[in-house]
Amino acid sequence: MTKSTEHNALQQRFGNRVKTKRTDAKSSGFGRLIIVIYGVFSLSAGVRSLYQLGTEFSEAPLAIILSTISAVIYVIATVALTKTGPGWHRIAWIAVWIEMIGVLAVGLLSVLSPELFPKASVWSHFGAGYGFVPLVLPMIGLIWLWRTRPTRANG
């Protein structure tokens, strides 16, 4: 079977391939890298918090609850960054702002009152345990979301 014949057979079986163009700039190009990083943090923070909830909760409830909250925020941001439309853009914007405020607040609290954090959370010491990526990621995310906001992307 020739390549052309094989292609025609596939078209008959599955229909023509329709090329679709993404209309949301936030999830293309550099945005895809941001989505991958958020996905990795969703997974790592989620697994860490589940493990800590099951094994270490009594040792550091505040830190573990904050790790769980950070995991949820990372998941929401990841999903919102992958979706198109102004509503999802707004959800991503809110999630990343909450993340930024959270990492700054928890980072400061963990420095000023380290006794509250016998076990580190993802955001403790401004994300030092993760190479400060939790501090830098929302800054980059907010800049990216601002640059790709629907009013700018469409107009």
Automatic annotation (TrEMBL):
UniProtKB keywords: Membrane, Transmembrane, Transmembrane helix
Spans traversing the lipid bilayer: 29-51, 63-81, 93-113, 125-146
Keyword Transmembrane belongs to the record: yes
Protein name: Integral membrane protein
Annotated source species: Kocuria carniphila
